[in-house]
Amino acid sequence: MLYKQTLYQPSCIRFVRCVPPVFVTKDLSETSLASRVCKSDAALILSTPQAELVDHINSFLGLQTGEFKPGFLQPGILLCMLCILHWGLCVYKEFRSIWSTLEAVATIPRSSRTTKSEHYIHSLSLARFIVFFLTCVVRAAIASILLMAGINWLARTSSIEELMLNAVALNGIMDVDELLFAAFTPLSIQHQLQRLRPVKMKYTSGRSQRESVVLFFLLLATVLIPYFVLLQPLGDGMLEIKKEMCGGNLTFVVGYNPDVQEVVGYVTQAARSTEEQSLSELAVNQHKFLNQQDMSSTSYIYFTPNRALFEEHRLQSIAELTEKIPFCIERDILSPNGTFYGDPLVLPLVNSRLKSAAIELDVYSSNVQCQDMREQCKRPDARLLRMVCGVTCGCTDPLASPWHKVKAQGCSDVCTSMAVMRMEGACDDRSDSLVWTEFWDGYGTAVSTYYGQDISKTAVWPFASNVSERLRMLGCQGLRVPQLQTELVSKARWCEGFPPLFRPLAWLCPNACGCASAFPDEAGHCPAHCVNTTSVGSAGLG
Question: Which ranges does the record mark as transmembrane (predicted)?
Answer without folding.
Answer: 129-155, 210-230
